[in-house]
Specification:
This protein is α/β, with parallel strands linked by helices. The chain is built from twelve helices and 13 strands. A hairpin with a 3-residue loop joins β4 and β5.
Length: about 500
């Protein structure tokens, strides 16, 4: 059998030739032989069941994934992991005995003490054959830590705080925390796109497994917090995986942040059999991203159906109310028609009564006025005759008085006229006498003849005034003597001017 490891060459000797490369199968056969030689006995080991696949049928085997966890301030961290198998016949004995002694079945999270035998197979690798189980270990470290985390969250009220938040009736504005390359995120988006509703998905990338996952998810929550008014809910999703890949979601800080987050948080981070602490602190925990998308679409569908039901109910109620209102309207119309006809008949009868009363009263008034008019006409005639008699008597009296007064006035005026005629005759005789005397006294030169005056552009003025230049006024009538005729004229204006030179007298102007 060739050595398993290369050896240094002895001093002074030429080095051996390098070993020829081994086929993988031969190498793994040597590993199996070494394991069987070195670890031939069975061992008691303490481990936590991180994954369990029970027999799917009678006679099947049970497959386990055993882990060894290291507890830190931020939770459990994986130190070692190995596959284990409980073969069918042994499982039929161990499982009932374990359940009978511990009161619970083999399940995830249990820390158990097992007696195992190390096996190595060239095709399946290292595994442990479970020979027996010590039921004294019923609770594993992962379960105790997880229980302590849950109790701490419960004491601070962070397990129920998210559940008291109201999820929007139609959550369509979603802040999704996931890995952009994760199949779970792609399934989530695909499921939403196949629904008839329009979702607004904003991705906040984060690392979803490993020791960096809690800090990365907390960073994504801090990025969402200032924009929480623009979202209806936060969705944390990842694809499935082993139990050990979900240890980050049992982190206390992450679960507390989710429990205190102001928006409802929906989770879909594991398989159906997994339930992380984060799921307990969230508003609603669903098993897979597809289940979260289906829940959102179904919620909108239910809301849509409710609205449709309301709409149909409203339509039905409105139609019933319209029918009732139409019937009431018809009844009211008939009632109004009958009432109107009744009132019309009453008003018509009242109108006829009033017409009769109105026709009777005027006739009676007319007869009374006719009688009064007859009496007044007779009275007027009598009054007229009396007034005429009185007027005739007054006229005769006035005529007699007027005749007497006229005779007295006529006699007085005749006496006055006779007195004035006497005075006038006396004055005329005096004036005639005075004029005769004046004519006798005056030696007035003879005026030139009219023909002579005409040759010099003058006419002779004939007036009764002795000094016409001083006595004639505007409006006085005079006569103008021309050679062949005499003109009657009226003075309209008086304008003084220098007197012309005296014309030669008729005796001096005529030739000798």
């Amino acid at each position: 059998m060739p050595p398993l490891y290369n050896r240094r060459p002895d001093p002074g000797l030429s080095g051996p030739l390098p070993p020829a490369p081994l086929p993988l199968a031969e190498l793994l056969v040597r590993v199996r032989q070494a394991v069987e030689t070195r670890f031939a006995e069975s061992y008691w080991v303490v481990a936590e069941i991180a994954d369990l696949t029970p027999p799917r049928h009678e006679g099947g085997h049970c497959y386990l994934v055993l882990t060894d966890q290291h507890v830190t301030g931020r939770g459990a961290q994986l130190k070692a992991q190995a596959r284990a198998t409980i073969w069918s016949q042994r499982y039929q004995q161990l499982a009932p005995a374990f359940e009978e002694q511990t009161g619970q079945e083999l399940q995830l999270g249990l820390k158990v003490m097992l007696r195992v035998q190390i096996k190595f197979h060239e095709q399946y690798g290292l595994s442990l054959d479970v020979l027996t189980i010590d039921p004294s270990y019923t609770v594993g470290d992962l379960a105790r830590q997880r229980l302590a985390t849950v109790r701490k969250l419960e004491a601070k009220g962070l397990l129920e705080r998210q559940k008291r938040l109201s999820l929007a009736l139609g959550p369509q504005r979603l802040a999704v925390i996931s890995s952009p390359t994760a199949a779970g995120f792609q399934d989530f988006v695909q499921q939403l796109s196949e629904s008839p509703y329009d979702f607004a998905v904003s991705l906040f990338p984060a690392t979803m497994q490993g020791t960096e996952a809690p800090a990365s998810i907390l960073g994504a929550l801090d990025a969402i917090r200032p924009r929480r008014a623009t979202f209806d809910a936060v969705v944390i999703i990842r694809g499935g995986g082993a139990k050990t890949d979900l240890l980050a979601f049992d982190d206390y800080g992450l679960a507390a942040a989710v429990g205190a987050f102001p928006l409802p948080v929906l989770t879909g981070i594991g398989h159906e059999r997994d339930e992380a602490v984060l799921d307990l602190a969230a508003h609603l925990a669903l098993k897979t991203p597809t289940a979260v998308a289906a829940f959102l679409a179904e919620r909108l569908a239910r809301l849509d159906a409710v609205f449709n039901g309301y709409a149909e109910r409203i339509h039905e109620l409105a139609r019933q109310q319209l029918t009732d209102a139409a019937e009431l309207l018809q009844q009211a119309g008939r009632f109004v028609h009958r009432a109107a006809q009744g009132q019309l008949e009453e008003h018509r009868a009242e109108l006829f009564q009033r017409i009769r009363q109105a026709a009777t009263a005027p006739r009676e008034q007319l007869r009374q006025q006719h009688r009064q008019l007859s009496r007044q006409r007779q009275g007027l005639r009598r009054a007229a005759r009396r007034a005429l008699t009185l007027q005739q008597q007054g006229l005769r009296t006035f005529g007699r008085r007027l005749a007497q007064r006229f005779r007295r006035l006529h006699r007085r005026r005749r006496e006055q006229l006779l007195h004035r005629r006497y005075q006038l005759q006396l004055a005329a005789e005096r004036l005639l006498h005075r004029a005769t005397l004046r004519l006798a006294q005056l030696s007035t030169p003879a005026l030139p003849e009219a023909a002579v005056l005409a040759r010099y552009g003058y006419v002779q003025l004939i007036t009764d005034h002795q000094e016409p230049e001083n006595t004639l006024q505007a409006g006085d009538e005079v006569r103008l003597l021309l050679p062949q005729l005499t003109l009657a004229a009226q003075i309209t204006d008086r304008t003084p001017h220098l007197a012309p030179a005296l014309l030669p007298t008729a005796s001096s102007a005529s030739p000798e």
